[in-house]
Amino acid sequence: MSRIPLAEAPGLLPKLHLQTSALFELGGDIYVYDVINTDIGVAASGSNHTVKFYDPSTLQAKATLAYHNDQITHIQARTNSFMSSSLDGQVAIWDLRQPLTAQPALAFRTKDQLLSFDISTDDRMLVGGARLDEDYHVARMHFWDVRGGAQAVRSFENSHSDDITQIQFSQHKASQMLSGSTDGLLCTFNVDEADEDEALLFVANTGSSVAKCGYFGPESQFIYAQSDMETLQLWTDDATLLTDFGDVRGSAGSGVPIDYMASFNYDPTEQRLYMAAGTNGGDLHLLHVGAGSLEHVQVLAAGHAGIVRGLSWDLRTDRAVTGAEDGRLSLWTTHKPTRTTTAVSGSGSGAGSRSESSSRGRFSPY
Fold this sequence. Notes:
Oligomer: single chain
Largest sheet: 5 strands, mixed
Distance between the termini: 27 Å
Mean pLDDT: 91
Structural class: mainly beta
Strand content: over 45%
Low-confidence stretches: 353-366
Shape: globular
């Protein structure tokens, strides 16, 4: 592996300390897939096809949603709403202003297994990315009018030739959307165009299967792309390659052991992109991603004993929650604890729940 330039930058972020941990479920071999912030607390999806909501200060469970009948592939929150997609072919939306019930306020359906989705910033267009249809050898993106019913208004099936692992809308251009696929391509679209050829704006070939990608920058003008081979690239939104870091596990030569990349978080105030990268043993390193180098900020240690899959990190409150394959969630804050605790998470209340017993370093490519 090549050695990535890496420096120490502990002063970029306040130091986070482990406060408490909670088990997602008592007994069984349940992974935590993803963790996000919502208006009613922290939400975590599990490998048992459920979503649990937690008090963000204590990790006490508040409610459980048991709606999907297959793997939950993505969860997301907006003001007053919570959304989830699944291999059962649905994107479901709950209104968080109402008491949580088993049935969502809206559900959008397709016969394809959905891996990813996003909603445009004007809340009008929902797009889902599907697993490759082996029968027809096509990978589809389905488009729904959020106000227009459960059936898709159109589908694109020529831009990608394999699983569509990521869909993300630009935060600054409501009609611009990014997709990433295991075919190695990043595609940007103008979703105001109904014809696929007319909608496709730019295509970038990363050369590796895209596991995660997303916009960042003060005008969402940059794109990060992570491969399932743990390589990292930075692009412009018009498909110009800025930086190819190669295999980030090469940073181990600089004293920071990395086995995988977990997530990315953009700080719009400081205009910095952060990467969370972990070890198989459960440690999670936070790194600042520069134009051509990585800066190690800190490590979240001893919170897990397995691969960390989810990180909900609120830069405004200096609070983070992690979820991992060990079935545990951990809460991190800037306060030094007198001791840490571990609790078994109950399901909480709500219909559909099941009761249980107890300016330096800013990103500038030029």
